[in-house]
């Protein structure tokens, strides 16, 4: 979910009457160098031209499709780092720029350990800007075998008769196939109509799982979609012992094959789901046995979730600060909770719930870990990064903030800013724990 735009997702894009369309491709090219920095800042680098995620911009203008891209000033290099002094009275000095104010330096350093995350030359680029609709909102699933990124949009007006059960809203699934960091094709996924209002997603087997929030008529649940055309889909789960889910929001997969997901009531608040018949819970589903169980409760709006690299900890965000109608209540949670994962009788239980972090701007939505255990979350000012102890070590400021993001290869991240798709390049070793690539 997003702090300034209510979060939802949909599949009515499959309707022939749906009018949203893309051009066949949006390609841009530029001369780039690639580097593989160590985990510490260094001036040396090794050329890796075959690694798209490791390439860095060298100069020259980009060719952009008029409707999808416009020239963006290149942002990168150590000159774009800013240290935030949190000692003594420094934060109150009038000469200090507020970390939440728009700044030309996107990388904010709250602790020196963030330097090894950034690498010697971090960069931020706007790859696509499309003002027609908020195409870049949630899911964010990178599929390494095809070098493809899948993204779900925010809600888009859809006047077609097929969208009546979603209150004339739809959500588009965008597929971006990369040939280099800035050379790619962009297309709309056309998958069966059962995938109503798709939202969060994750890698699963040879394809991806999407959270189908459902509609006033269609049930919500989990959908498996093949990564390759024709993107066939299969319903994995659409009820809790015959009781309908609210509107599943985000999903992850444990190494034992079990699927964990959150289920807030945003769909009901936004008018495309019936009155809830379940609390707002976190679930674990085992496809091999069919076992579906509640693993956590007590949330205002459970949202993003991820495991630590060793899977001994799970992080779950609560975005109760923002309700589905877009209203905010600053007395409510904008919190990342951590739980210890305890195994008994060959089943996992969540214990030792504690506050891991509280977002200072907006609410933490999508959440990921890197291979070192650092925790990243999309917040009202961009990507916030905490170490495994819950200390804020840095931020990647994104204009307008972001709801979600995902890692690619070798320190590459794609960040979703509604009408904009951003590419962030960190140090090569700052890889996502989910894929480890």
Automatic annotation (TrEMBL):
SUPFAM superfamilies according to UniProt: Calcium-dependent phosphotriesterase
Compositional bias of kind Low complexity: 35-53
Residue stretches making up the SMP-30/Gluconolactonase/LRE-like region domain: 206-410
Positions of the UniProt region annotated as Disordered: 1-79
Protein's UniProt name: SMP-30/Gluconolactonase/LRE-like region domain-containing protein
């Amino acid at each position: 979910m997003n702090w300034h735009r209510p979060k939802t997702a949909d599949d009515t894009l499959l309707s022939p009457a749906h009018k949203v369309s893309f051009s066949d491709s949006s390609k841009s090219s530029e001369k780039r160098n690639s580097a593989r920095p160590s985990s510490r800042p260094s001036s040396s680098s090794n050329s890796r031209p075959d690694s798209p995620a490791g390439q860095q911009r060298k100069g020259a203008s980009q060719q952009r499709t008029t409707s999808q891209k416009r020239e963006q000033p290149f942002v990168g290099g150590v000159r774009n780092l800013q240290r935030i002094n949190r000692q003594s009275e420094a934060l109150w000095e009038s000469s200090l720029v507020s970390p939440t104010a728009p700044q030309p330096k996107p990388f904010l350093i709250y602790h020196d350990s963030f330097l090894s995350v950034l690498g010697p030359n971090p960069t931020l680029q706007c790859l696509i800007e499309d003002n027609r609709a908020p195409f870049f909102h949630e899911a964010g699933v990178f599929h390494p075998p095809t070098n493809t990124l899948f993204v779900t949009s925010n809600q888009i007006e859809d006047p077609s008769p097929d969208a009546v059960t979603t209150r004339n809203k739809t959500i588009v699934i965008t597929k971006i196939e990369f040939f280099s960091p800035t050379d790619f094709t962009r297309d709309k996924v056309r998958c069966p109509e059962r995938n109503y209002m798709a939202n969060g997603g994750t890698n699963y087997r040879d394809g991806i799982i999407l959270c189908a929030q459902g509609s006033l008529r269609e049930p919500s649940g989990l959908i498996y979609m093949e990564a390759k055309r024709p993107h066939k889909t299969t319903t994995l789960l659409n009820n809790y012992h015959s009781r309908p889910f609210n509107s599943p929001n985000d999903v992850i997969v444990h190494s034992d094959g079990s699927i964990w997901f959150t289920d807030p009531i945003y769909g009901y608040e936004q008018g495309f789901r019936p009155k809830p018949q379940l609390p707002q819970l976190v679930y674990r589903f085992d496809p091999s046995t069919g076992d579906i169980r509640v693993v956590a409760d007590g949330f205002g709006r459970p949202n993003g979730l991820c495991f630590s690299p060793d899977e001994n900890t799970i992080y779950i965000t609560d975005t109760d600060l923002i309700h589905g109608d877009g209203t905010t209540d600053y007395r409510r949670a904008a919190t990342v909770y951590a739980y210890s994962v305890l195994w008994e009788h060959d089943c996992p239980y969540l214990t030792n719930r504690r506050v891991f972090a509280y977002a200072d701007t907006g609410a933490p939505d999508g959440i990921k870990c890197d291979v070192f255990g650092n925790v990243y979350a999309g917040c009202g000012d961009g990507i916030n990064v905490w170490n495994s102890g819950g200390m804020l070590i840095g931020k990647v400021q994104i204009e307008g903030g972001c709801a979600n993001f995902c890692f690619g290869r070798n320190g590459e991240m794609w960040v979703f800013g509604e009408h904009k798709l951003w590419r962030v390049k960190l140090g090569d070793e700052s890889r996502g724990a989910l894929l480890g690539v």
